[in-house]
Amino acid sequence: MKLVFATHNLNKYKEVKALLPHHFELLSLTDIGCEEDIPETATTIEGNAIIKANYVRDEYGLDCFADDTGLEVKSLNNEPGVYSARYAGIENNSEANMKKLLQKLDGHDDRSARFKTSIALTLKGANNLFTGICEGIIVAEARGDRGFGYDPIFQPTGFDKTFAQMTLLQKSEIGHRGKAMRQLIAYLSK
């Protein structure tokens, strides 16, 4: 089965490809000739995933899934949430985003947070949504050199390592994207 994953993010692509069974052929936006950045104009994580999946279906006529992920920090009223990738005002600048988040958390005792991934699937004209959540805390300073985004400052509940200190396999087993992907794979395997 051939499916498009609506992303230009190579890190996300690798993470998702590692989770898919081998009988799926995964294509990225680049693979289908889509060079544009699909606007993420929704006010929710779910809404952005739906926009991206529908865009590929409408513009390219291909079955597709898209994800959107946000980090929600409880004491910051669930910021950065839908704005996680551009929290510091610069798209996908992880260092600036983490710095802003850590500054805003300064003085807060409650550092609980969660990662949330929503995956929208458009397949043969039908739409489906799958959501994965990983609870944890924001640590005081970055640790680890793996992963991407907020991984160096997010420590999942029950672990003493941040996502950036874990292997891709470890992160996928407990992480938000892995949970949402397993729901997607179960649906596709029916």
Automatic annotation (TrEMBL):
InterPro entries linked: dITP/XTP_pyrophosphatase, ITPase-like_fam, RdgB/HAM1
Q: What class of enzyme is it?
A: hydrolase
Say if the entry is tagged with keyword Metal-binding. yes
Keyword entries, A-Z: Hydrolase, Magnesium, Metal-binding, Nucleotide metabolism, Nucleotide-binding
What does this protein's record comment on cofactor binding?
Binds 1 Mg(2+) ion per subunit.
Reaction(s) catalyzed by this protein? dITP + H2O = dIMP + diphosphate + H(+); ITP + H2O = IMP + diphosphate + H(+); XTP + H2O = XMP + diphosphate + H(+)
Q: Which cofactor does it need?
A: Mg(2+)
Sites binding Mg(2+) sit at 68
Main function = Pyrophosphatase that catalyzes the hydrolysis of nucleoside triphosphates to their monophosphate derivatives, with a high preference for the non-canonical purine nucleotides XTP (xanthosine triphosphate), dITP (deoxyinosine triphosphate) and ITP. Seems to function as a house-cleaning enzyme that removes non-canonical purine nucleotides from the nucleotide pool, thus preventing their incorporation into DNA/RNA and avoiding chromosomal lesions.
The subunit field of the Swiss-Prot or TrEMBL record says: Homodimer.
**What is the name of the protein in this document?**
dITP/XTP pyrophosphatase
